[in-house]
Amino acid sequence: MSRVEGMGAAAAEYEQQSDFDKIRRIPYLYAFNIITAAALLCTVTSPLALFAAELGVPKDRIGLIGGIMPFVQVIAVAFLPIVMAFGHRRVAGYASLTRYLCLSLILVAPLFQGNPDMVFWVLFAAMLGFSIFRTLAETAIWPWSQEYMPSFIRGRLTGGIALAYLPVALVGSVLVQLWLDGQHGIERFFPVFAIGLVLGVIAASTLFGLGGGKPRPGSARGLDSIRAMRDPLRDGNFLLYLVSSGTQFLVYTVINLFILLFFRERLGISSGQIVLMAAFIPVGAALGSVASGWFVDRYGTRAIRITLQALQVAMLIALMFVTRDTPGTIFIVGAIFFVFGMLFQSAISVGGIYMLNYVPPAKKESYMTLAYMTDGLIGGGAAFLAGWLLELLASNSIVVSGVTLGNFETLFALSAVMVVISAITFAMLKEEGATGVRDFLGQFGRGRPLSALWGIHRYGALTSEERRRDLAYGFGKTRSALVKEELIAALSDPSFDVRHEAIQSLGHLPPSPAVVRALESMLAYDGLVELQYAALNSLGRIKATQSGDAIARFLDSPNPLLRARATRTLGDIRDMRHLPRIRQLLADDPEIDVRLAAVSALGKFRDSQSVDGLLQVYRELAGDAVSMVGEPRSKVVLLALAKILDWEESFSREWRHEEKVLGYRLPGLFGRLSDSLRKRSNEEHSRLLMQAAAALSSGSTGTAFRALQALRPYVAESGHPEAGIVLKLMDGTRDIEQPHRALLILLALAMRPVLAG
After folding, report:
1. Is 511 helix (H, G, I), strand (E, B) or coil?
2. Higher pLDDT pick, 641 / 272
3. pLDDT digit string (tens) for 108-144?
4. Helices (H), strands (E): how many in the chain?
5. Could you identify which of 15, 305, 728, 741 might form a hypothetical disulfide with 350, taking C-beta atoms 3.0 to 4.6 angstroms apart as the criterion?
6. Contact between residue 356 and residue 146 where contact means Cβ atoms under 8 Å apart
7. pLDDT confidence band for 13 (50 / 70 / 90)
């Protein structure tokens, strides 16, 4: 077989997984993480430390055994040729299996009981072997995770795994503690270790159920895979990520270790109470991971990570003020453990998701190995440096502005500074399509965010058409941008009613490019007039000024309802480019509904040049006896004129009151107009107005209207800037014999400042 044929065969063997196949294999991912966590809980965590202590190993050597794992991560680069040659799945599976075989050596340690040195070396050898093969396994698993985790649900997967592990952590810890406390002798550790080792082997076998992980054709092999490490070292954006990730991991490692000592030494909390309260860490971590993962899938990682880190800084500063005399200390400790797990572990998982999304798939091994090595160096050295700092400051206090800071307070302050550095560098990272911090937080300051989140939860459940429609309607009432993803998705719902409700609800949300694009897409639904009408209405409601051309296309629609709605919407967004076309519709359109829509739009434009055209429409409507019954269409024209005259609010208020109780407001308006004339020493017309006001209570408007028209000479000679448009209004309505009361209200409001001036 030729080299070309060989490469072709390899390429055929290496196939990209579909999202469906990845989702189908997710149970294996859950199984691996949960069972592995249970295996570690029974072996290399507290049981191993207690086991070594009972065998007489000194505390400093126990610390050395526990610190092997992060330090060994530094040699991950040496394992790259193995991973590239044999593939991620094969290496990860067999290395995970082998690490537990190495760890089984701890069962031999009791044979050397009475010889602490020999016990130490046996345990050290077991942990060294475990750590080496753990590093080999994770050198393969980290890059491989980019293949088997669907990109669009990585956040939810991370949160789901953390939530699923929570009962294992809580129940497992209790069971191990009860067993060890209820038995005697070193042999009581054997069942715990045996269960952990068996679980580890089972966890390793689940890796073979995941897809992908085969050697990629054309990828760097041998020493070339190590030389490829130069690529991430030249990537400035990735180096920024390493700084942010490293400083965050450093603070997490330090606080996770020394906050226990702070509670014991400064607050006087007993070891048993601290162990009990520490159970809130995985609870907070699980809930935080679920919430942050959900938000990451919707808004990207940057806003979520920085928000979490801002809260971390607040927590670290608050810790500096917690003392033995603080009321409710035990409850505060529990709350701090919960918040610590929620903020710190969630932020680290969010950073990991950013790396998965950012790293180029063709170079994922070199990128992720560098990140893995960096975390190992930081995790291995952070605890030592922090311990050294605490010992140094124990006898050397720091004074800042007259305030003395102890060793723990100084550690918390330095940690807060490191978190700020981490947040700043993370904010500088490139993330395409991510929501900014201000925009993300702004979504919680508008509308009803809690109602929105609860509605989103219910919308994702199994629901009927009627229920989905009600939820879509409710989303609009929240006025929260948090629901825009659900409403945009609802535009593709099989139910017409759900789509229609979603379009209308989008019009109640804060405007955003995504909402505007979604509504514009509904304008292309030719044949579904109701949906197009609703989309035009919502675009106007959110003032989508960038959609003017898409809306104006409907001014030439053969459907008069769409022409009318598009005209009103252009008035809502006040797109001046289409003002001439709307003036033309006012004059020429054969449909009265479209002409009335043009009237409304011109009023919103405050278009004083259209006053003559508006008055012509008003005269036509006022002369039509049918239109004056009930809610007169002529009122639309008067409202538009009121907007142009800048009397909209007063006109609407006075007319609503007058319509409710006949003669309730008009006489008062005429009385105030009479007072203005009296100040000008015009007693005769003032008296005529008062007589007209009295007649208004009987229902007749002719006398009052003629009394107003008799004031034309005074309006003309007033010199007021608005006199010209008021004269147009008076002259344009002069021939109406029995004008509507709304016209009298508008004339009285408009004439008063002219005559008073």
Report:
1. coil
2. 641
3. 999 998 898 999 999 999 999 999 999 999 999 988 9
4. 41, 2
5. 305
6. yes
7. very low
Question: Does pLDDT of 654 surpass 70?
Answer: yes
Question: What is the enclosing helix (H) or strand (E) of 400?
Answer: strand 398-400
Instruction: Work out the number of other CB atoms within 10 angstroms of the CB of residue 178.
Output: 10
CB 349 within 8 A of CB 158: yes
CB atoms within 10 A of CB 669: 23
Per-residue pLDDT at 7: 39
- Give me the chain's average pLDDT, please: 84
Higher pLDDT, 337 or 177: 337
Secondary structure class of 153 (helix, strand, coil): helix
∠ Cα 645 648 649 (to 5°) = 140
Q: Tell me the mean pLDDT in the region 356-370.
A: 87
Asked if 208 contacts 93 with a C-beta cutoff of 8 angstroms, the reply is: yes
Taking the C-alpha atoms of residue 693 and residue 748, their distance in angstroms, rounded to an integer, is 11
DSSP 342: I
Q: What is the pLDDT of residue 386?
A: 62
Between the CA of residue 210 and those of 27, 28, 162, what are the distances in Å? 9, 6, 19
CA distance 267 to 264: 6
DSSP structure string for 112-148: GTT-HHHHHHHHHHHHHHHHHHHHHHHHHHHHHHHHH
- Measured CA to CA, the distance from residue 75 to residue 373 in angstroms comes to 7
Q: Positive or negative, the Cα torsion across 649, 656, 598, 507?
A: positive
Is-contact 11 215, C-beta < 8 A?
A: no
Rounded to 5 degrees, φ, ψ at 107 are -70, -15
Distances (CA, A) of 612 to 528, 607, 728: 37, 11, 7
Roughly how many angstroms between the first and final C-alpha of the chain, as a whole number? 102
Task: Quote the CA–CA distance of 210 and 31 in Å, as a whole number.
Answer: 11
DSSP element (H, E) containing 4: helix 3-13
| Identity of residue 479 | R
Other C-beta atoms within 10 Å of 77: how many? 18
- pLDDT at position 6 is 44
pLDDT band at 396 (very low <50, low <70, confident <90, very high): low
- Which pairs with CB-CB distance under 8 Å and at least 24 residues apart come from 191-195? 192/42, 192/43, 192/47, 193/42, 193/43, 193/47, 193/51, 193/106, 193/107, 194/107, 195/42
Please check whether residue 676 is in contact with residue 755, taking contact to mean a CB–CB distance below 8 angstroms.
yes
- Residue 345's Cβ-side half-sphere holds a number of Cα atoms within 13 Å equal to 24
pLDDT for 661 beyond 70: yes
Separation between Cα atoms, residue 497 and residue 665, nearest integer Å: 43
User: DSSP label at 405?
Assistant: E
State CA 570 to chain mean position distance. Answer: 31
Identify the weakest region by mean pLDDT among 4-8, 93-97, 307-311, 589-593: 4-8
Which of 718, 650, 657 has its CA nearest to residue 682?
A: 718
Tokens of 701: 């408007």
> Are the beta carbons of 399 and 408 closer than 8 angstroms?
no
- Inter-CA distances, 417 with 40, 257, 316, 388, Å: 33, 18, 10, 19
Q: Give the per-residue pLDDT at 623.
A: 67
Closest CA to 445 of 456, 433, 455, 437: 437
> How far is residue 699's CA from residue 641's CA, in Å, rounded to a whole number?
24
Q: Cα separations (Å) of 510 from 470, 485, 573?
A: 20, 13, 15
Average pLDDT over residues 139-152: 86
Backbone angles phi, psi at 243, to 5 degrees: -65, -45
Instruction: Judge whether 748 and 638 are in contact, CB under 8 Å.
Output: no
